[in-house]
Amino acid sequence: MDNLFVITWVATIMIVLATILCTSWNKLRWRRRRRRTRRAQLPRGTFGWPLVGETLDFVSCAYSPRPESFMDKRRLLYGKVFKSHIFGSPTIVSTDAEVSRFVLQSDAKTFVPWYPKSLTELMGKSSILLINGSLQKKVHGLIGTFFKSPHLKAQITRDMQRYVLEAMNHWQDDQLIHIQDESKRIVFQILVKGLIGLEPGEEMNFLKQQFREFIAGLMSLPLKLPGSRLYKSLQASLAKKRMVMLIEKIIQEKRNNRNGCTQRDVVDVLINDASDQLTDDLISDNMIDLMIPAEDSVPVLVTLAIKYLSECPLALQHLEEENMNLKKQKSVTGENLQWTEYMSLSFTQDVITETLRMGNIISGIMRKAVKDVEIKGHFIPEGWCVLTYFRSVHLDESLYKEAYKFNPWRWKDKDMSTCSFTPFGGGQRLCPGLDLARLEASIFLHHLVTGFTWVAEQDHIINFPTVRMKGGMPIRVRRKIKESPFLG
């Protein structure tokens, strides 16, 4: 009994001490947070309705011709940084260029990627869009270095020229061409070859079919609703499994036949790395994620450029003159254009830059705070999400005069490295394929404006869940002159 009494007494004392320590620690944390919030305040705003928050209003505006209207209304009420509740999470929305840049430049000790649960389930935990720390740096670094390599740029230049000319050689005068569909077909083939070394053929067609099903499910799930969306989710999951099986088969063949040959694609680069972290599952998952730009980014960039040029005859004339001059120079030697020559077309690059600013193919990026954060006097609590909304910055009249007007000349001698222009994200997760996107768009535009005139049919932009033209941007083409035998 005495022993039992002693044990009970000691246990009671320990519980009391533990309670006092926990209470003291919580008070200390609260005081620290209160001291911090005296310096940095939680942004003003509203959480909206119970459970759904402001998600329905956000999505409704996103489907409209001016998706930034959700932000504009709240900016007038609360300022450029405000709180909200969207996609099931309390969220700080930033339309401030400096705040957004800070978030993008931060490492995984401060912010980590965040996506709605329905999307993360389809992408997988090993996706480069979700992984953090040293593994993310390794994968991103290897892929980024290869994407910048002269070998890949030369290969993509040759392939893009060949595929574009093969497609355009079949165009007839007064034929209606859907630019969005044409550019998707061409760019998908080029990117898949650069990623996994697959040439056009039966396996390419199978991969394309499965990828379409995957994208249809992926893009239908920003909100998890019953019925058809659940069905699409299942179809997308099955499509991804089929793609993974094909890519893992290609990876295994490459491992079996590896003999120190030149690294011709991204898979070659990753399997040649000695790290045990880069498993076949991780590689195949990330190849699928990197195919997403072929579905959206580059083809939509090309399509929107043609839309804006069709509405701005002076810019189209200037672009045509620049590209015709280059074509005439190359006709003297009969040589093919190289990637450096495409990228040297200054006005063409300004057209692409202005298209990226106005089109906002990536409208914003979401991150989650892993600790309390203070930015420019704004307090972001641990566990909250941050939406850095690029579109509002790119269309800010205080940063860009006549922001809703297509004006490529605004970029002449302008520094694009400023925090007010972030079409490809930023920081450690800056899109590794940004140079290739510009290259492919430059090649398509070059051959279009030097080979054809066109009249655009009426069409309009849809901004959610991804940016695209509703009708695929139909144009009625007419050939200028018979194509020369060289590819310039």
Topology:
Layout: H1 2-39, H2 55-62, H3 69-78, E1 81-86, E2 89-94, H4 97-105, E3 111-113, H5 117-123, H6 133-147, H7 150-168, E4 176-178, H8 179-196, H9 202-219, H10 228-257, H11 266-271, H12 280-295, H13 297-310, H14 313-333, H15 339-343, H16 346-359, E5 364-369, E6 373-375, E7 378-380, E8 385-389, H17 390-394, H18 434-451, E9 452-456, E10 461-462, E11 468-469, E12 474-479
Parallel strand pairs: 2-8
Antiparallel strand pairs: 1-2, 3-5, 4-12, 5-8, 6-7, 9-12, 10-11
Helix pairs in contact: 7-8, 7-18, 8-12, 8-13, 9-10, 10-12, 12-13, 13-16, 13-18
Protein name: Cytochrome P450 90D2
Family: Belongs to the cytochrome P450 family.
GO molecular function: heme binding; iron ion binding; oxidoreductase activity, acting on paired donors, with incorporation or reduction of molecular oxygen, NAD(P)H as one donor, and incorporation of one atom of oxygen
Q: Give the distance, in angstroms, between the N- and C-terminal Cα atoms.
A: 98 Å
Q: What is the CATH architecture descriptor?
A: Orthogonal Bundle
The whole-angstrom Rg is 26 Å
Average residue pLDDT: 85
Overall tally of structural domains? 1
> Total strand count, please?
12
Looking at CATH, the homologous superfamily is Cytochrome P450
What is the number of helices? 18
Poorly predicted spans? 1-31, 34-38, 221-227, 483-488
Question: Outline, from the CA principal axes?
Answer: globular
Strand content: 5-15%
What is the makeup of the main sheet? 5 strands, mixed
- CATH classification, class level: Mainly Alpha
Strand order in the largest sheet: 1-2-8-5-3
GO molecular function: heme binding; iron ion binding; oxidoreductase activity, acting on paired donors, with incorporation or reduction of molecular oxygen, NAD(P)H as one donor, and incorporation of one atom of oxygen
Membrane topology: Single-pass membrane protein
Protein name: Cytochrome P450 90D2
Subcellular location: Membrane
